């Protein structure tokens, strides 16, 4: 008995396969045998690569250069008895790690819930009885029943097929449903797309019915093979990860150099050391032990000042908050750093169907006799009206009419509804709402909805005009025929002259060639050459408007044939009319594309549709611009990688492409230094999703493999949600820059204060514990509040930033240096004035220096909300988080100054009103300097 996937089942007979799998094509497996096979071979589900355990996730959070330096600083502080410093650093490190682990775990749990929602059921024969089971419980050897609307739950060798068509786009990229023939015996080497006697896991039955033998389940399916291939792909670091890693190494190196310089300079500043070098150096060290330890602690505190301890935690919190916002906007981010990567996306390669369009074919216009009409309404909701004289989608000057009043239009809609196998049903949803769903071919469903808009419903019409015979659709004939008794419709009997009528639906050119008459005013008249030319022109006009056009005709029959023959029935037809339909664009996509173009994003449509349709839709939604390039899959095949990369800058529409072409398109864009977001829903899309900088899977129509591979999952399959996610990504990166700017400006100021004091032989203006309190309170909380900014108004009118752009660019580096110098000048000025006021009270001067630096940094937090916009144009109170952060931080600063039992811990003394009046002008020097720097930043941008 086979438990593995049979790769050559399409080349074997049914009898050979049922014997091989020890099953019966009529009775199926027994329940006990199916359970045994599931226990031994595993469930029918795709397995993701083993996820890292808690300790591995935790290690990833600690494996960071900045974090390692902080841990070393904590250990040194602990060894020197500075328990408060050590505990504070450890707390920050642990907070950062826990937040990172929790957020990544939440994302994975949300994705798992989404996958469970899309898990289909399966109808199988067990012990000779048809039962419905979860798809994951299908076992090798099961006999599976297939009907229109079902997902194929496993890889099957078909045993029976009745007009069976399967949508295999998710696996092969073939946009047209594939006709299946269970009786076919194929060459074992037949490619996947040509295996007409097989059905594959994850594809969908669009028409007909069938029965199949499960020859592969779970990872032993075609989908599973692709999923397994993906396990070898390595994840690339995101731009933010690379930049923060580089920044951490630079800051860490600077810290070590500063520590060494300060310590060595402090030692050599004392002339006793110079004398000791020539004498008893060890005796000198013993004599000066206390001063040397204090000097060493000063160096360590300076290193602590240089490292923005809160940066990793604040970055993580900012990304986590951005992730939560994106989930509310229908974008599920699987990995935390991918939130930021969206902010530097330069190209979006988007599927058309369901992403740019509604994935709901809709009849927009038609012609019957001398009546040309348009239909309002979208999607599968049967609400809309019929108009004559409408232009495009503008119904303002059109005349509303009732199709029942026009016999030709009425017969056209009834013929389209009768010669049809799709169904439309209203399904109740939670909360009392309902949704309209179709079963069957989407094109036929559009005809059913159009008829329903006039009050025609298939069940009622079939009862009035029962179907008695049919000739199924055939891709060679390009048409379908149904035969009905029409006694219940006197107007049809009068029009065609018979109580038995055949309705034929199909390609307009094919149907027209079979017609000798046409319907006009409810009567049959000869089809002249002039009328034929007019109909062909009408068909061409609809087709060039990106509409898919179907023709409907009929033929009176003398009686119901026992076995209708196409050649006998489908001749001398009476032409009734044309119906043109389209998968309409999503309403929000046009505006989203305007925003994307304004943001400098290049948008490319990638679709399996024909060139004319794809280009017309791209023009309608504003994606195709003058000078743009359209490439078909065959043209892409004929281009080398270098030639494709050269074409990539002009590329706007890719049509008739297979999922394999998507990877080449991604590589071509990346060769031009683009950051690419690629959408996909199929199994074969997975390599392209993995290859792209941001892989975007569809949450509704996407396969499990696509969702597991992607960086982001759209829960509404909507292009506009991608733009919203990119908007949020830009906000997040801008906020990260803001608090990096704010934190480093604070830290550089602290370094210059300490270093300058030592250089000029002054006492240290700030105690180590005061520096740590500064970084934890006055720096940390406002920096976190900066991460809550909602974004500047022009953020989506700026061009995408270069992926190679550093977090700290030239202008920011200059500004950090200037602000650091201004802070040092202001604080040292206050310190010197305080020393003059309190010549024998160093703690009072240090307290005033501490208050001055804290307050000026807190005030500067308001101006740090934008690198270019004035604080007055943004509004002081627009970010309530920063208001509360500044208030709370200022109260905590006052607490260590005025609470008696904290004064000895922080080496502070209470200050009087005159002291505050002395410090007051110096509070505003740093914030005003930043506002002046914004003027230069605006000019440079």
UniProtKB/TrEMBL annotation:
Residues 8-82 form the Cation-transporting P-type ATPase N-terminal domain. It is found in: Cell membrane. The chain crosses the membrane at residues 57-80, 86-102, 250-268, 292-321, 739-764, 811-836, 881-901, 916-937. It holds the Pfam family Cation_ATPase_N. Keywords: ATP-binding, Cell membrane, Membrane, Nucleotide-binding, Translocase, Transmembrane, Transmembrane helix. CDD domains: P-type_ATPase_Ca_prok. It is a multi-pass membrane protein. The keyword Transmembrane applies. The keyword Acetylation does not apply. InterPro entries: ATPase_P-typ_cation-transptr_C, ATPase_P-typ_cation-transptr_N, ATPase_P-typ_cyto_dom_N, ATPase_P-typ_P_site, ATPase_P-typ_TM_dom_sf, ATPase_P-typ_transduc_dom_A_sf, ATPase_P-type_domA, Cation_transp_ATPase_P-type. It comes from the Bacteria. Belongs to the cation transport ATPase (P-type) (TC 3.A.3) family. Type IIA subfamily. This is Cation-translocating P-type ATPase.
């Amino acid at each position: 008995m086979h438990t593995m996937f049979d790769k050559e089942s399409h080349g074997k007979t049914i009898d050979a396969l049922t014997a091989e799998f020890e099953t019966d094509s009529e009775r199926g497996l027994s329940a006990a045998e199916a359970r045994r096979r599931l226990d031994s071979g595993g469930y029918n589900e795709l397995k993701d690569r083993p996820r890292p355990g808690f300790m591995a996730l935790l290690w990833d959070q600690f494996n960071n250069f900045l974090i390692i330096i902080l841990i070393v600083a904590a250990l040194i502080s602990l060894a020197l008895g500075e328990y408060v410093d050590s505990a504070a650093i450890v707390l920050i490190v642990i907070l950062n790690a826990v937040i990172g682990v929790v957020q990544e775990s939440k994302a994975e749990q949300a994705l798992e819930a989404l996958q469970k929602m899309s898990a289909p059921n399966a109808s199988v024969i067990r012990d000779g009885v048809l039962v419905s089971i979860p798809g994951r419980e299908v076992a090798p050897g099961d006999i599976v029943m297939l009907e229109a609307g079902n997902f194929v739950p496993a890889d099957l060798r078909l045993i029976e097929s009745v007009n069976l068509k399967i949508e295999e786009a998710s696996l092969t990229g073939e946009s047209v449903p594939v006709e299946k023939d269970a009786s076919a015996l194929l060459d074992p080497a037949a490619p996947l797309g040509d295996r007409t006697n097989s059905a594959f896991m994850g594809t969908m039955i669009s028409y007909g019915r069938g029965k199949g033998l499960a020859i592969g389940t779970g990872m032993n399916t075609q989908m599973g093979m692709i999923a397994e291939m993906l396990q070898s792909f390595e994840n690339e670091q995101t731009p933010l990860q690379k930049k923060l890693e580089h920044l951490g190494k630079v800051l860490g190196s600077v810290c070590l150099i500063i520590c060494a310089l300060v310590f060595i300079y402090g030692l050599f500043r004392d002339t006793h050391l110079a004398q000791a070098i020539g004498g008893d150096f060890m005796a000198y060290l013993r004599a000066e032990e206390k001063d040397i330890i204090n000097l060493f602690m000063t160096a360590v505190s300076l290193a602590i000042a240089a490292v923005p301890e809160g940066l990793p935690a604040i970055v993580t919190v900012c990304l986590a908050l951005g992730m939560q916002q994106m989930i509310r906007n229908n974008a599920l981010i699987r990995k935390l750093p991918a939130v930021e990567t969206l902010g530097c996306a330069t190209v979006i390669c988007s599927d058309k169907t369901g992403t740019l369009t509604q994935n709901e074919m809709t009849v927009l216009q038609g012609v019957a006799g001398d009546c040309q009409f348009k239909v309002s309404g979208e999607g599968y909701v049967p609400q809309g009206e019929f108009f004559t004289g409408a232009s495009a989608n503008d119904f303002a000057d059109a005349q509303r009419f009732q199709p029942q009043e026009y016999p030709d239009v009425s017969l056209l809609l009834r013929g389209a509804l009768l010669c049809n196998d799709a169904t439309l049903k209203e399904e109740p949803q939670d909360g009392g709402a309902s949704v309209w769903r179709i079963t069957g071919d989407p094109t036929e469903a559009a005809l059913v909805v159009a008829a329903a808009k006039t009050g025609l419903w298939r069940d009622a019409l079939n009862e009035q005009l029962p179907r008695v015979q049919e000739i199924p659709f055939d891709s060679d004939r390009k048409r379908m025929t149904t035969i009905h008794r029409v006694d219940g419709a006197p107007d049809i009997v009068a029009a065609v002259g018979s109580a038995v009528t055949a309705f034929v639906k199909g390609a307009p050119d094919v149907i027209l060639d079979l017609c000798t008459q046409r319907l006009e005013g409810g009567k049959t008249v000869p089809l002249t050459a002039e009328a034929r030319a007019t109909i062909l022109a009408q068909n061409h006009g609809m087709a060039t408007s990106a509409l898919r056009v179907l023709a409907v005709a009929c033929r009176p029959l003398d009686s119901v044939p026992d076995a209708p023959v196409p050649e006998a029935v489908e001749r001398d037809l009476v032409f009734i009319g044309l119906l043109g339909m389209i998968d309409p664009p999503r309403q929000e996509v046009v505006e989203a594309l305007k925003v994307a173009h304004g943001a400098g994003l290049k948008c490319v449509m990638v679709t399996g549709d024909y060139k004319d349709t794809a280009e017309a839709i791209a023009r309608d939604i504003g994606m195709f611009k003058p000078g743009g390039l359209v490439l078909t899959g065959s043209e892409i095949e004929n281009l080398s990688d270098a030639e494709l990369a050269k074409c990539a800058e002009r590329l706007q529409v890719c049509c008739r492409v297979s999922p394999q072409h998507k990877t080449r398109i991604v590589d071509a864009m990346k060769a031009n230094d683009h950051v690419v977001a690629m959408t996909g829903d199929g199994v074969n899309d997975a390599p392209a999703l993995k290859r792209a900088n941001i892989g975007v899977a569809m949450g509704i129509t996407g396969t499990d493999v696509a969702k597991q591979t992607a960086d982001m999952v759209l829960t509404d399959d909507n292009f506009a949600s991608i733009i919203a996610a990119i908007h949020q990504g830009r906000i997040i990166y801008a906020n990260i820059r803001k608090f990096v700017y704010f934190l480093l400006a604070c830290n550089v100021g602290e370094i210059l204060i300490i270093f300058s004091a030592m250089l000029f032989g002054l006492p240290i203006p700030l105690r180590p514990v005061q520096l740590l309190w500064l970084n934890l309170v006055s720096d940390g909380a406002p920096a976190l509040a900066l991460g809550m900014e909602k974004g500047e108004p022009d953020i989506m009118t700026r061009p995408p930033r270069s992926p190679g752009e550093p977090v700290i660019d030239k202008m920011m580096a200059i500004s950090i240096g200037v602000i650091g110098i201004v802070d040092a000048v202001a604080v040292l000025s206050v310190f010197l004035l305080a020393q003059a006021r309190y010549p024998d009270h160093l703690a009072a001067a240090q307290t005033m220096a501490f208050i001055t630096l804290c307050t000026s940094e807190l005030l500067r937090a308001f101006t740090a909300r934008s690198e270019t916009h004035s604080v007055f144009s943004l509004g002081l109170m627009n970010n309530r988080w920063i208001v509360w952060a500044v208030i709370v931080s200022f109260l905590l600063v006052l607490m260590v100054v005025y609470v008696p039992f904290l004064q000895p811990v922080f080496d502070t003394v209470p200050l009087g009103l005159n002291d505050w009046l002395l410090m007051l002008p110096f509070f505003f020097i740093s914030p005003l300097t930043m506002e002046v720097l914004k003027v230069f930043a605006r000019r440079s941008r």
